[in-house]
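User: For a reading group we're discussing how well predicted structures match intuition. Take Lipoprotein. Before you show the prediction, I'll give you the sequence so everyone sees exactly what went in.
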Amino acid sequence: MTARRFRLGRAAPLLGVLLTVAACSGGPDTDGGPAQATAAPSGSVAAVCDKQPAGPAAAPAGAVVVDPAVPGDLAAKTRSAGSGTTFWLKAGKHILGDDKYDQVSPKDGDVYIGAPGAVVDGRKINQYAFTGHAVDVKITYVTVQGFAAPHDEGVVNHDSGDGWVIEHSTIQDNDGAGLMAGARQQVRGNCLRRNGQYGMNAYSGGTPITALVVEGNEIAGNNTGDWEAKIDGCGCSGGVKFWDVDGADVRGNWVHDNHGTGLWADTNNNDFLIEGNLIENNDSAALIYEISYNAVIRDNTIRKNNWADGRRYADKSDNFPTSAVYISESGGEPRIKARTAKIEISRNYLENNWSGITLWENADRFCNSPANTSSGDCTRLVPSVKQCAAPAITSGALLADCRWKTQHVDIHDNKFVLDPAVVGCQASCGRMGLLSNFGSYPDWSPYRGDAVQESITYKQDNRWHDNSYAGPWTFIAYSADRVIEIGEWEGAPYSQDSGSTFTAQGGG
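Assistant: Thanks. Here is the predicted 3D structure of Lipoprotein, as structure tokens, for the group to look at:
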């Protein structure tokens, strides 16, 4: 698992995403800055917590009825029934037993349907709710809460079974991750909130997860355990974390008030479509795409993110552009099959985040480098970590392919709005970044010196154009100490933001 970063340093449509002043859920102000309040959205983006459609009030024909008055009834009836059974959970609190490993192990094709008010409660005794390697399991209209999963483990689909469908359910107040993921999993219309580490941890530990759909969910208030404080630099918290996922559609979700990053794709992800989401009021970035490939990020509304992390960096005079969208050692790669051969960031509306978009590539981070915190992983272009070693890495294909490169990133037709008075910041906010560090480690690295700084800035087809800016934006290019104004950013040698418009006054 990887650390978050190596520390060295035309207008967009709103897609019908309008805010109301009702149903506010205040986000805690963790750093002494302005208090934030999140209003429930209307339109195309999900606001489903406490508003889930009701499940059937009577058992469907042929369903096995599960009685909450009988402790362990759900697990026992699952064991005794054949595969493909439908279970209807009566209203009330269902408990699993008094051992931490009392859990439900579905069989292939099993279906779990909750009546209105059906809750599966772990009472902070049981670690897991639904486990095992069964395929094509469906869970719908059920609340799952109070389970004590360990760090990096999950409560529902603990073992990353393939083909699971989780719909119209509430997974809340659990330790660890509320939900794990397998291939072909569909997560639709759920409330994933107040879980200790993640709302969902899309990590299988085996073959890559493929064809993942995350649609119409409200993902809120996760990382109650504050794991970044417990394990410094762990990169192990937030709304959703994606690991080694090859094909994902993430659309129409409301991702808000998470104590960390909203959506975080980390380590050899590929072929993502992230569209039509409302991502707001997260303590860290709205979206991180890290050591990964090929993505379309479009038509999202992204606002009031990274206030906590941005202020922390500013308070310690760290000049790194802490951004709402952070692309870290990630880019387009035509040799890897996907729906696109670049990272395209377009038609997004970004308002009053601490900063905008940062493209970063750590010169010292590559396959087999001690500076790569995903130490057991190599790039998707090189099958073995051991291949990326001197002297072979110093020339030929390995010189290029042992790196995760920030390349072929196309940022266009976005609107960036900043009012520093709203954000509560001074000169350190309102930045775009295109930069690397001076390579220095390890001593056998072929990427020492300014080679990566030159490449990410001038040679790797990273381009801003046709965007709209409102507010006092500045830019960091090449290295963290090079802060430049609009004219320098547009002119040689950077030649960025052709066709873009700039107005000094912030506001929508």
